[in-house]
Amino acid sequence: MSIQNLIIYKFYSLYQILEELDLDLNFKILNIDNETSLNNKIKKLNNYIIISNKKNLNINNQVILNDTPINIFKLLEKLNIEFLKQQFNNQSQIKINDYVIDLNSREMRSNRTSTKLTEKEINTIIYLSKVKKPISVDELQKNVWSYQSDIETHTVETHIYRLRKKIFITFEDNKFIVSKKNGYQIN
Question: Can you spell out the DSSP letters for 58-127?
Answer without folding.
Answer: T-SSEEE--S-S--HHHHHHHHHHHHHHHHHHHHTEEEETTEEEETTTTEEEETTEEEE--HHHHHHHHH
